[in-house]
């Protein structure tokens, strides 16, 4: 076994096809974030500063058997597109055994940090320092079967949202849904709402970094049926009430940027739009809506499946490895103390630092 490291743009057509073929082998790999198109789109968005964006190509007996993209710094590596990348994995043949340290050595760094590694990646399990789940809506049986299953499970969210739909129809106008909208005005309005929300909640404005806006705009302009951005909108009367910008693969739509007009808050237009997206999926190639990580009520009630993911790092003996071990040690010590919400402050600080690193590294 050997590992070659090349830039995404240098992948041959045969390698791109092979990578996509391996994605189809395991349903867990059916995510746009694990595709060769994601790595290439991120590389273009980051432009000349993307020299550190590389793909590890695992070879066995002369065949390409595994692919993983990462953004390389001087000593550490992050997932390609972090913090905008919601999943990480070595997309490989079933049963392939690769020591993660070999990937770190091949990348030429001292440490690889991951934030949402597929839990099914057994090789990375010893290096996990935390676990969470991504909420998924499996629509393989269609809207009718899904709605019946949710009602049978005692979920009242769908009923509540439909009541609000009737209310807004009576009060104002019938909501109008549009899938794969090409309205640049609605797209820009959604970004503006999202930035306002991030500032109001004292979160990092990810759109201040130029490459993230370039990434979203290229995805919005994409016409590839198996990869790109998908803008879903909900209008009430002549006004945009909510917009979702999701990224899609061959079968999966991954919820990504979600925003709404605060003027329509009482009607929950964002949730109404989620239900419209799920209905729309009937008769399309898409059978899976990934809601991402988080314990929000709507994710818990809409989802009927989960995807486990882990956070952690793989390091080789080095200062970079020691620094990360110390950081996780502080997190573990704080979370073991009865400090209430303050126990989670070190973990939040570490996540905020990683977010800054991902945004800053490509400037």
* CATH C-level name of the largest domain: Alpha Beta
What is the radius of gyration? 21 Å
Q: Based on DSSP secondary structure assignment, what is the total number of beta strands?
A: 13
CATH-defined topology of the largest domain: Aminopeptidase
Whole-number total of structural domains: 2
Envelope shape: globular
Q: Strand portion, in percent?
A: 25-35%
Measure the end-to-end span.
35 Å
Number of helices: 11
Helix content: 25-40%
Give the SSE string.
EHHEEEEHEEHHEHHEEEHEHEHH
Class by alpha and beta content:
alpha+beta
Biggest sheet overview: 13 strands, mixed
Low-confidence stretches: none
The pLDDT mean sits at 94
Overview of this protein structure:
The protein folds into 2 domains: 2-132 and 311-360, Aminopeptidase (3-Layer(aba) Sandwich); 141-286, Aminopeptidase, CATH 3.40.630. It has 11 helices and 13 strands. It has helices spanning 13-25, 36-46, 100-107, 142-152, 157-171, 184-200, 210-221, 269-280, 297-302, 319-335, 345-360; strands at 2-6, 53-60, 63-72, 76-79, 91-92, 111-118, 128-138, 175-178, 228-236, 239-248, 252-260, 288-293, 305-315. Strands 1, 2, 3, 4, 5, 6, 7, 8, 9, 10, 11, 12 and 13 form a 13-stranded mixed sheet that branches. β3 (63-72) and β4 (76-79) form a beta hairpin. α2 crosses α7, α5 (157-171) packs across α8 and α10 runs antiparallel to α11. The chain is globular and about 65 Å long.
